[in-house]
User: What shape does this take?
Amino acid sequence: MLDALTITVSVAALALAAWCGFAAWRDQPTKDWHFIGMAVVTLLALAQLVVGIVRLAQGETAQGGTTTFVVYLIGAFLSVPAAAFLSLVERSRWGSATVAAGAVVLAVLEVRLYDIWGG
Assistant: This one.
């Protein structure tokens, strides 16, 4: 995996978590700007998914197991969109809190992906 991409996704996810966590603290639901931030983080996670699959297709292997690595890649990609959907259903401060939690999950999954790859 690309260490720079993993760090970028993690930092972006933590920034999104802080931003949405602050909105939840202020008793605000997710707004359009939050969804733009979620889209950016999701695009970064998609780039990582593509890079990971391409690296596997080129013959590289994850030290922690290929299946585990692919499942973590897919989970990392889906964590923020799933939280975004839930925030649309729950149009209160808890929607913002859900996105913050989903972004923290993504950051944790990034650390785990790094470990599985052999970092």
Summary: The chain is about 80% helix and 0% strand. The two ends are 9 Å apart (CA to CA). The CA atoms of residues 10 and 40 lie 12 Å apart. The chain has a mean pLDDT of 94.
